[in-house]
Amino acid sequence: MDYQALLEQIAADVAPLAGSGTPAEYIPALAAVDPRRFGMAVADLNGTVYGVGDWRHPFSTQSITKVFTLALALASGGDSLWERVGREPSGNPFNSLVQLEYESGIPRNPFINAGALVVTDALQSLTGDASSELLDFLRQESGNPDLAFDPKVAESESAYGDRNAALAHFMASYGNIANPVPTLLDHYFWQCSIEMSCADLTLAARFLARHGLRADGSRLLTRSEAKQINAVMLTCGTYDAAGDFAYRVGLPGKSGVGGGIVAVVPGRCTLCVWSPGLDARGNSVAGVAALDRFTTLTGLSVF
To answer: N or C: which terminus of the chain carries fewer CB neighbours within 10 A?
Structure first.
């Protein structure tokens, strides 16, 4: 498949959407990003990367990192993690408190904020330094030793993190948080602040297309665990628009309010698209359209 020609066609097709949507305004460091930026990349199983537009421009990964934290927590701690967090779509905004009270402090899935806090808490217990463990992993898998946290974004996350603090304290009251809440929040905010490009993210996510195999050929996850993560990405990875994303795109995907979306074609390739303008549900307008065009043009999906 000529990925380069395909990406160039997709970029031309979605160009009219440039500037559509609104960057995440509740995080000041993200609100200033130009919504007209657009980049897209594809990495094949061998690690060859193709790109178009701003595909090498670093951006704030935000919730995309939840995929990698989940993988590390499963790899180190096993299936016991699923006793603390569910695998069902939430149907509510990603920072909602509503379901936690009905469901005794057990978040619906690992990709809403409450679930991601539980996963980060589990990784913190397993490693003693969850955010650094995540950054080291991303550097290794992407082949980019210069990946780093963005202190300004982490500061913004912390300054406007009252809802996340409420989620963590509420779950702690049910015994579903093991570490001190301030420690957990610190690692969670640093985790969300990591900057990566589309090229970096396609390479870092390849283990999900390679059925759990890392870039060096070692096994991070069993085939079953890789399938589990892909399944939860498909059903829960794009906030409360996951059903529409599955309908339109048909691939496991994880979005972030920085405007990025990572998607996986198991056994074939990984993709990442970035465009900061978000729709009302927090997903990139041009990004979803670009992935829709990819599956339409190639016929590649999990269905």
So the answer is: C
Tell me: pLDDT of 95 over 80.
no
pLDDT at 267: 98
Q: Is 254 a catalytic residue?
A: no
Q: At what angle do helices 130-142 and 113-127 cross, to 10 degrees?
A: 90
Indicate which residue of 42, 52, 63, 153 is catalytic. Answer: 63
pLDDT in the model for residue 94: 65
Question: Among residues 72, 36, 68, which one has the least CA distance to residue 54?
Answer: 36
Reported as a single tens digit per residue, the pLDDT across 105-138 is 999 999 999 999 999 999 999 999 999 999 999 9
Cα 250 to Cα 161, 171, 288, 299, 301: the distances in Å are 33, 33, 11, 10, 5
C-beta of residue 10 within 8 angstroms of C-beta of residue 17:
no
Active site residue 66: yes
Active site residue 188: yes
Contact 138, 194 (CB under 8 A): yes
First to last CA, the chain: 19
164-208 pLDDT, tens digit each? 999 999 999 999 999 999 999 999 999 999 999 999 999 999 999
How many alpha carbons lie under 13 Å from residue 70 in its C-beta half-sphere? Answer: 32
Mean of per-residue pLDDT scores for the chain: 96
DSSP helix/strand/coil, 152: helix
> Annotated catalytic residue: which of 50, 119, 188, 273?
188
Q: Is 265 a catalytic residue?
A: no
The set of residues, in sequence order, having a beta carbon less than 8 Å from that of 196 and lying 6+ positions away, is 58, 59, 61, 138, 142, 144, 147, 204
Is 239 an active-site residue?
yes
Choice among 66, 131, 197, 254 that is catalytic: 66
- At 133, list the tokens: 């463990």
